[in-house]
Amino acid sequence: MSSALLPTAILSALAQEQHSLLALLQQPRKVSHAGREFWQGYLQGRPVVLALSRIGKVAAATTTTALIERFGVRRIVFTGVAGGLGAGVKVGDVVVATDFLQHDLDVSPLFPRYEVPLYGKTRFAGDAALTALLFKAAFGALAHEHEQGQDSLVTQQFPGACAHQGLIASGDRFVSGASESRALQAALAVAGHEVLAVEMECAAVAQVCLDYGVPFAAVRTISDRADDSAHVDFSSFVEQVASRYAQAIIQRFLVLL
Fold first, then answer.
1. Is the pTM for the entire model greater than 0.90?
2. How far apart are CA 148 and CA 77, in angstroms?
3. Which domain holds residue 75?
4. Active site (catalytic) residues
C-alpha cells in the first residue's frame, strides 16, 4: 500500500480531548480491538485512526502497539493536556515536544537515573520533520485565535497564549502539588534536563514508536502549572479549551502533511 494511503493515528488520553475531532470524522467506522475502540475515517481528506491512549504509560504503550500492528498507521500524533513546569509556560499555552523522558524511571545504580535500560539513552526524540509541522500548525492555530479579536478564546481567557518547543516528561503520577512540582523540576535540571511540561503517556508512546520505526510527535495544551490548583476546573478546561485547541491544530497539521 502506498504510504500516502496509510492512516495517521491521532491519540489522546481522555475522551473529552478528542470529542471535537471525532465529531468531524468523515466516513467513521468503529473497530474494537485489544479492549479499546478505534475510529477509522477521514479528516481533511486524509485517512486517520482516532484512539484513546488511556491514562498512564502502560496503557499508552498497549494502544500504540495496537495502532501499529493492527492498523498499520504511518505516523502517530498525540494531542492532549499537560502540567506546565518550565519558566514562562502558562496555562493556555501549548508545548510541542522535541523529546520525551520518563521522570519516574530509576534503575540506579545499575544504570544512570532516568536512563532506559538497554537503550543507552534517557530521552526519546520526536520525529524532527513531523514535530516541525506540528509546531507550525500549533503556532498558526494560536495566531488565528489572536486574530479573531474579542470572539477569540485566546483573547478572552489566555491573551498571552503562545507555542513552545522542548522536553516533555512522562510518569505514572498526576503531579499536582507545588512542592512536588518544584522537586521534580529541580531533580531533572540537576541531571541536565530542562523540562517544559509533565504528563503521563508520551514517553511510553515515543519508546514504542522508536522500536517500530514509526514517526511520532506530540502537542500538549497546558491546563495547569502542576501545582496545588491542578485539579481546579480540569474537566471544564479539557472540554472547553483543550478540545478546541486539538481540533484547530490537527486540522492545520493534516493540511500541511
1. yes
2. 27
3. 3-256
4. 17, 224
